[in-house]
Recover the amino acids of this structure.
């Protein structure tokens, strides 16, 4: 029987991409009650709202996934929003959780918290050895404060807070909005849109040289559950696959999987982002037995399939015409 079985678990961001998969993983483990506050009713940047929520629900566990997230473009356009919202959500939620006696708090950080020129593979001990990549530093630093807070609260109050650092996630139900999406869904949409229009070229940002590591979203949900069940330590933990791929190689794979046969052009006036990203996954394996299971080719195929099916159903949905009256 899972440690989660029968417990009351509050998950922020449960309606989002990762949150929807985490809900399924928790339900498979027999969660006693799942509390899933939604943004429309619960502004987590307001202390009074968070206090009312946690006083009412009194969860055994809080899993904090909620965040303002997006790709390079939206991070560069709205750095203040990304800093403030992410900092305040985490700070307020952990403080109130401590005060009401939550038994366990798991905070999701971000790979963007690492310094721009971190030696590869990224090891958790390198987190403080430099400043993050500039285009997403406000977001990365705001999320890294969760680690500082968790360690400070554990030291002073004995509060059982842990901090996880997932790499870039991908999979079904991702955000495919070109204004706010991350690299894989953006590439998939660009390739499929171009293919369907008969266009002979797509344009991608940068020069294709940076590398990234990706983790299938269902694998990440499993990792969070394993950490919740088996990990009680102040040390941060990377969550990833341990596999590195260049953006140029990724574009070729996405084009092949989507059936786009045109030219892939690179806009070198746009930023590349962090030069390399690939993490050391040893601590997650040794501390709570997590190893990514989904091969990248399989996960990419499932992501493309979901987007194609979803976009087709959206196009086939009847449109309601407004009355002139």
């Amino acid at each position: 029987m899972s440690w989660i079985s029968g417990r009351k678990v509050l998950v922020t961001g449960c309606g989002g991409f990762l949150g929807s998969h985490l809900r399924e993983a928790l339900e498979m483990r027999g969660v006693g009650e799942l509390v899933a506050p939604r943004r429309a009713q619960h502004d987590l940047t307001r202390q009074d709202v968070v206090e009312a929520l946690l006083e009412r629900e009194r969860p055994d566990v809080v899993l904090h996934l909620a965040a303002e997230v997006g790709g390079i473009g939206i991070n560069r356009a709205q750095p203040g929003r990304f800093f403030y919202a992410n900092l305040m959500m985490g700070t307020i939620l952990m403080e109130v959780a401590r005060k009401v006696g939550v038994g366990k708090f798991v905070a999701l950080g971000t790979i963007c918290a690492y310094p721009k020129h971190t030696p590869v593979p990224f090891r958790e001990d390198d987190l403080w050895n430099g400043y993050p990549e500039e285009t997403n530093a406000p977001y990365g630093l705001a999320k890294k404060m969760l680690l500082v807070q968790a360690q400070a609260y554990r030291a002073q109050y004995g509060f059982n807070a842990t901090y996880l650092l997932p790499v870039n996630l991908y999979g079904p139900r991702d955000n495919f909005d070109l204004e706010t999406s991350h690299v894989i869904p953006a590439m998939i949409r660009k390739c499929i849109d171009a293919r369907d229009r008969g266009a002979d070229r797509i344009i991608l940002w940068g020069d294709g040289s940076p590398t990234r590591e990706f983790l299938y979203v269902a694998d990440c949900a499993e990792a969070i559950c394993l950490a919740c069940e088996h990990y009680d330590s102040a040390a941060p933990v990377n969550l990833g696959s341990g596999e590195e791929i260049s953006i140029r190689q990724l574009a070729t794979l996405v084009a092949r999987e989507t059936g786009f046969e045109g030219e892939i052009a690179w806009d070198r006036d746009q930023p590349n982002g962090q030069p390399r990203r690939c993490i050391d996954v040893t601590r997650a394996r040794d501390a709570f037995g997590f190893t990514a299971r989904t091969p990248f080719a399989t996960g990419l195929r499932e992501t493309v399939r979901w987007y194609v099916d979803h976009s087709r159903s959206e196009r086939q949905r009847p449109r309601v015409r407004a009355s002139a009256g």
